[in-house]
Write a structure and sequence with these properties.
conserved putative lor/sdh protein from methanococcus maripaludis s2 fold; 21 strands; Peptidoglycan-bd-like; 355 residues; Muramoyl-pentapeptide Carboxypeptidase, domain 1; Elongation Factor Tu (Ef-tu), domain 3; coiled coil; mainly beta; 3 helices; 3 domains; six-stranded antiparallel barrel
């Protein structure tokens, strides 16, 4: 009776060296097991653990999509930030005729002048920013009151501009968060009106194009592992998932392939530990996500599995000075381990490893 194994996929590699013959139960013991003719060369334990099978996809680390900064300031550009500079709330994006254009946070553009008597969501957005910058004496709501105008004058005095109590788009530009200057398309001396530079978010993210039909794993908050070119692994989480699918137009796609199988959606992964990313601003990375998980199951190394002549798989159980074969059912294969179950298979059991 010889021991061996016949498996598919990764399991073949792990056990091929042990030979391809199978063991059988024919003529074995009365309990449905068979006694081995000799002790295995090595043994291992049946352990209980969580098995995780990960799938890896390609991604790109960067600061994200570049967005043009449209200035409505009048006059001539007298100062611009350098590429790579980060501007936060209240910071200066550029200077026009030596007057600052200031960054505030929000989704609504400043589409009208804000002054006493104006009401609306844009007023509340502005007042939230003014309060965040430390100015008080007014109520944060949708009404621009005289108290708001007084606070605005204090802010304008600090900025060194005319204290009008009115805010318009020549003074303020909104963005969702802090921005990082990407490509500067204007220069000092140019017109201050129009696109002056492009910007991105101020933190690095990973973007992944995923087959729309295989994107069930991509839900907001799902944990992933990002592997950098130097092999360093960093934890990440899915921050957003695109809602529109586009066709994969990469060169490795078959010509004239316009089927829905090519539909791709973009997944954005956030990285909390930005320092761990080092100095790389843009680079290809690998992103691994959990494809399958089996919690708290009995496992053995794949190499411990034996192919049975009757079909299925077994283990060589070593007890005292003897060993015997028992049949097992297999589950998930991951990281060189396999989930096993069967009558009499217990945690801590000693099993043989084929030579």
């Amino acid at each position: 009776m010889r021991r061996g194994a016949i498996f598919s996929g990764a399991a073949v590699v792990a056990v091929a060296a042990a030979g391809a013959a199978a063991v059988g139960f024919g003529g074995g013991g009365s309990d449905g097991t068979a006694e081995a003719s000799q002790r295995p060369a090595a043994t291992t334990k049946v352990t209980r653990q969580t098995l995780v099978a990960a799938t890896t996809v390609e991604g790109e680390l960067s600061y994200g999509e570049q967005v043009p900064l449209e200035s409505r300031a009048q006059g001539t550009v007298t100062w611009l930030p350098a590429a790579g500079a980060t501007v936060k709330r209240g910071g200066t994006l550029l200077r026009a005729d030596d007057r600052p254009v200031v960054l505030l946070y929000g989704a609504l553009p400043l589409y009208r002048a804000l002054s006493t008597g104006v009401e609306g969501k844009d007023v509340k957005q502005f007042e939230q920013n003014l309060r965040a910058l430390g100015y008080t004496g007014f109520t944060v709501d949708e009404e621009f009151t005289g108290a708001t105008a007084s606070a605005v004058k204090e802010w304008q005095e600090d900025l060194g501009v005319d204290e009008t109590g009115t805010v318009d788009s020549t003074l303020v530009v909104y963005a969702p968060n802090a921005v990082r200057v990407a490509d500067v398309s204007s220069r000092v001396g140019s017109s201050a009106s129009g696109e002056v530079f492009t910007y991105t978010g101020s933190t690095k993210v990973v973007t992944v194009s995923v087959d729309a039909g295989e994107s069930d794993w991509a839900v907001k908050g799902a944990a992933v592992t990002v592997t950098l070119p130097d092999g360093k692994e960093i934890a990440g989480k899915v921050a957003s998932v695109g809602t529109e699918a586009s066709t994969d137009d990469s060169e490795d796609q078959p010509p004239n392939d316009t089927g829905t199988d090519d539909a791709q959606i973009e997944v954005t992964v956030s990285i909390v530990d930005q320092r761990a990313l080092g100095k790389l601003d843009r680079t290809p990375v690998d992103v691994a996500y959990v494809a399958q998980e089996r919690k708290d199951v009995l496992t053995v190394p794949v190499a411990a599995l034996l192919a049975l002549a009757e079909g299925g798989y077994g283990l060589e159980v070593v007890e005292g000075g003897t060993s015997r074969y028992v049949g097992v059912q297999t589950g998930l294969f991951a990281d060189g381990k396999v989930e096993v179950s069967g009558d009499g298979v217990t945690e801590g059991m000693t099993v043989g490893l084929p030579k």
